[in-house]
Each structure stands twice: as C-alpha cells, then as structure tokens.
Amino acid sequence: MTENIPTTFVSSSFATRTGNSSAVVYVSNKEQVVNIGGTPSNKNTNSGYSHIFLITDGGIFPEDTVFSLDEYASPIKSGYTFDGWEEIDILYNPINKSDNTGHTYQAKWVEKADSKISFKDDLNLNKLYDGIAVSLSENDYIVTEGAGNVAFAYQAKGGNDWNDITSAPINAGTYQVKAIVAENDTYKSAETDWKEFTISKAMPTYEVPTNLTATVGQTLADVILPEGFAWQDAQTTSVGSVGTRTFKATYTPKDTMNYNIVTDIEVTLTVNPKMEELNSVPTIKAEDKTLFIGDKFDPLKDVTASDKEDGDITKKVEVLSNDVDTSRAGTYTVTYKVTDSKGASSTKMITVTVREKDTQKPTTDDNEKPSATDIDKKPTSTDKQITADTPKTGDRTNMTTWAILMFVSLGLLAGVFIVRKSRKNI
C-alpha cells in the first residue's frame, strides 16, 4: 500500500489530468490543499483553485489502485471503514467553480468495532524436545466472535534479546509467542501479550557398553569405548586388580543442541591378569652309566643343560639326590635339576649300575717265560686244549684241585674197566 500522499501537485503521482480537464489531486489533509491551491490573497490569479482536491484524512491507497477522472479512488485506513467522499468548504471559495472544477472532498470514515483475543489461562507450551514444531489451535485462545483470522508470531531468546523467527520453533530453547487477530470489515485488529515457553533438551537413548576387557596395569585411557562414550578421569584411573570392576562414563550425543549430555553411567569392565612372555623350559642332557666296584663317580661329569632363551646353563645344574655306592654292586639313581633366569626349571633322573669286576688272566713271571724256540713251535691239539682250559690268573689253588680230581676220576674209571673184564672171563 501507498502510505504517503504527495504535498504538491507537480510531484503528486495521485494527480490525474485528461486533456484540458482540471487535475484531481489526492492529499492527506486540508493544509496540503492550501499549499497547492494558494492562499486567499492570490486566489484570483492562482490556477490551483480550479483543481479538484480529495483529502484522505490519514487513509492510504493499496499499491494496485488505479486512478482516473471518471471515478475517485477509495482509500483504506486501519480500524476504519471508508464511507465515501463528502464535499467540504475550505478557508476560501475557489474561483471557476463548476461541476468538474474547484471542488474539495474529504473521506468519510466509520470506526470499526474493537476485537479482543487472549490465550487461555491453562495454556502450557513447555515441553521436551521431540523434533515436532510447537502447534497452537483455536482451542488455545479466546477471540471476539466475528473477528478476523488469527495468526501467531514467535520470537527466540538470544542472551538478553528477543529475535523474531519466521516459523513455529522446533529446537530446544526459550521462546515467546503472541496471537494476532487480523482486521476485517467489522472489527479492528488485536493481539495478545507475549507468552513465554521453553522447549527443554531431551535425554538421549543409548546402550551401555558391554564386554569390555582390560589388563592389570592399564588405565581407563587404554580401554576404547564406543562412539559417544568417554571415561570420567580416564588418564588417572587405574583399572585395578583382576576381576570385575565398575567405572563411570559420560555419553555425549551428536545433537547437543536438543539432547543432554549424560554423566555417571556405570560401565562394567573385566580386568584380566597381565600376560607374561612365554618362557621355554630348560633341558638336561645326562645318560645312564655303568661302573665297576671301586670306580670313582662324579655325578656332574658329562652332564650338560641348555635353555632356549639363556643358552648354555650347565653351570646351573644341581644334584637333587645321589645314592650311588661304588663299593657295592647294585643299581642306583641320580636326580638333577636346572633353573633358567626366569624361574622355569626341569629335572632328570639317570640310572647308575655298579658291577663286580671281570676275573683277570694270571700274570706270568719273567722266569717262566718261554724261550724263543718254544714260541716259534706250533702248538699241538693237546696244547690248544690245555691252553683253553688253563685257569685264569689268580686261580692257582683251583688248578691243583682240578688236577687231583682228574686223577681220582681216571683211577675210578680204570677200576671199573678191570672188574667188567674179570666177570666176562668167568
């Protein structure tokens, strides 16, 4: 709508002229008529007196108004209804007054009735964020019957200021709203006071992390949580000893404008023992032994030990038990043990057999050695037998006994032979 009426004819976009006809000039008030038409002292010479003036008296014209000489335009005015044009007398009588010249008209206005609108006392717009815009209906206000359409205006609070927003709010924040009833042909426009309300942040939904594990010696910072979760005091909190532990975590949603950050969420953590580096068991190399009575026995002789990590650890071999007695024939055991640098140990037992010594051949005195001639002679079969039956060194007494027994046996055989022969001859 056009809000201002020009004050002079020459600049007035509301002045119209057709051919030689007088101009029609729209003005806001009577003073403008004087300014354009002149004063009484020069009314006989000023052509302005032949114009037709229309005083809107505060009225304005819509932007699409069409002005013509044939029909005067109709202005509008807030709170009033236009009731036509009425001619009035100004401070002096214009010259050349006729049907189409020298007239002044003023708009007639009829005041509209007041309308009223107010929110109901029990209206409560506070709510938790739910992603849905605030909505008001005809059930939320009271308005004068027959009044115009109702619309709503919203403002959002920013610090200490209120800022206009173009639509009903959705996000969490502090807002205010007012209802405005539009002017119609009968009633004036009216509006309510501002009503403040709050859309509060909602609690986010989340799943508490499960199946979390840690190792003795770690802190919570070493335990990775799902997206959005964080340990409280992670850098300084130890996971503690082996077992099930409960610690507090914080959940931060992606949309912090509309959802709260949740703290003190109890999360269960399983703490496992620290995994030690695998250590190979050392090995002992020792073999079973056979000794003879009277032999010396060193249990550590020929015994070695080795370890995958430490290498040769023979010097660490120790004898746990040893019951070997070389003065008596028998079977004995020796048990060894070795321990590596990390505490791993192994044992091994061997068997030691002690036997009686084998009987040695008799030694020959130098005086009884055969001569070279005797050595060169080949022995007869009788010699071989004798040699084969010759007792071993150390059994001379036995040899004499065997000789006596042999002669006795021969004597007995001879006696038996003689007796059999005598019986045969009888």
Tell me the domain tally. Answer: 4
Strand count, sense and barrel status of the largest sheet are: 6 strands, mixed
Number of strands: 23
User: Could you tell me the strand content as a percent range?
Assistant: 25-35%
Shape: rod-shaped
Molecular structure report:
The strands form six sheets. Strands 6, 8, 9, 10, 11 and 12 form a six-stranded mixed beta sheet that branches. A four-stranded mixed beta sheet has the order 1-2-4-3, covered by helices on one side. Strand 22 and strand 23 (345-355) form a beta hairpin. The chain contains four helices and 23 strands. It is rod-shaped. It has four domains: 24-111, no CATH class; 117-200, Immunoglobulin-like, CATH 2.60.40; 212-272, no CATH class; 283-355, Immunoglobulin-like (Sandwich), CATH 2.60.40.10. By secondary structure, it is of the alpha+beta class.
Give a nutshell description of this structure.
By secondary structure, the protein is an alpha+beta fold. The protein has helices at 30-37, 372-376, 381-389, 396-425; strands spanning 24-27, 52-55, 80-87, 104-111, 117-119, 127-128, 141-143, 150-158, 161-165, 173-181, 190-191, 195-200, 212-215, 229-231, 243-251, 262-272, 283-285, 289-292, 304-307, 311-312, 318-322, 330-339, 345-355. Strands 6, 8, 9, 10, 11 and 12 form a six-stranded mixed β-sheet that branches. The protein has a four-stranded mixed β-sheet with strand order 1-2-4-3, covered by helices on one side. Strands 13-16-15-14 form a four-stranded mixed β-sheet, with no helix packed on it.
